[in-house]
Amino acid sequence: MLPNIVGRCKNGLILILTPLLLSPLLWLNYHSTEARCAFVVLLMIIYWIFQPIPLAVTALIPVALFPLFGLATTEKSCEPYLKSTNMLFMASLIIAIAMEKSGFHRRIAFRVLIFIGNDLRAIFAGFMFVTMFLGIWIINTAATAMILPIADVVVGEIFNNHSEKNPELEMINGNPTIPIEIQRSDVIRKYSKKISPELNYIRRLLYICIAFSATIGGTSTLTSNGPNLVFQFVLDEFYGNVPDVDYTKWLLFCLPATILSVFLSWCYITMVYLRPRIIAQVKNTSTTTLIQKYNELGPITFHEIA
């Protein structure tokens, strides 16, 4: 009974007890600036870890407590939140949300996949370079989240093609026959079990490739990754005598290496992890579902163009 009550009230207990347990730092040595600052820092660390309140609220605690404890003025407390670095990061998130709402990423991905056809190596290349392209302009986590549902559609098409039709039934004594559709057949169920691990292997490998490509694409621009903006901030703040690093310089320096890295990653994956037997099984996968999904998007809208 007691553990259930504690479990339900865990967030409330952490929220209330943490400042009470840290309060001796204020009582014993309130005149020490270090003690007051330690109180705020430890409070935020515990709230970060256990999350009794939303992370965004925890991040704003210094705005309230620093002026209250005399550690900094309100202007100084708010200044780090409005740095150009943070504004660029927020702008990249806005672009990612706008792209997701418009569905432009789906149009790009489906168009590329329809163009490259049903070769498994080409499918991997298409996903990797599309993800890299999106990762150049938006946060890499957002690019990954946008592409994964499309990867599910493609892998699902491979599963459907192999689970609905048995290729072994299309030839009798070496002569072609009309494909036989069998629903809920023991033959198909046995065949599906045989190839299912390999198709699951393709799914996992494709997910890893998408994540890698988004990470590599995130190195191309200042706004595509948080650490890039942190680097620019540190450079401007502590090394003001060095030449400025702007968006264009960063892009021109990193983009060639980004494209080369994705290409080499694709070469390594296709040579080491994509076995010829797996590639041969996916050769007959059609692009009908992809064409249907692309047609469902309709004509390009002003939202996508903007």
TrEMBL record:
<feature type="transmembrane region" description="Helical">
    <location>
        <begin position="12"/>
        <end position="30"/>
    </location>
</feature>
<dbReference type="GO" id="GO:0005886">
    <property type="term" value="C:plasma membrane"/>
</dbReference>
<dbReference type="Pfam" id="PF00939">
    <property type="entry name" value="Na_sulph_symp"/>
</dbReference>
<feature type="transmembrane region" description="Helical">
    <location>
        <begin position="250"/>
        <end position="274"/>
    </location>
</feature>
<keyword id="KW-0472">Membrane</keyword>
<feature type="transmembrane region" description="Helical">
    <location>
        <begin position="37"/>
        <end position="61"/>
    </location>
</feature>
<comment type="similarity">
    <text>Belongs to the SLC13A/DASS transporter (TC 2.A.47) family. NADC subfamily.</text>
</comment>
<keyword id="KW-0812">Transmembrane</keyword>
<dbReference type="GO" id="GO:0015137">
    <property type="term" value="F:citrate transmembrane transporter activity"/>
</dbReference>
<protein>
    <submittedName>
        <fullName>Solute carrier family 13-like protein</fullName>
    </submittedName>
</protein>
<dbReference type="GO" id="GO:0015141">
    <property type="term" value="F:succinate transmembrane transporter activity"/>
</dbReference>
<keyword id="KW-1133">Transmembrane helix</keyword>
<dbReference type="InterPro" id="IPR001898">
    <property type="entry name" value="SLC13A/DASS"/>
</dbReference>
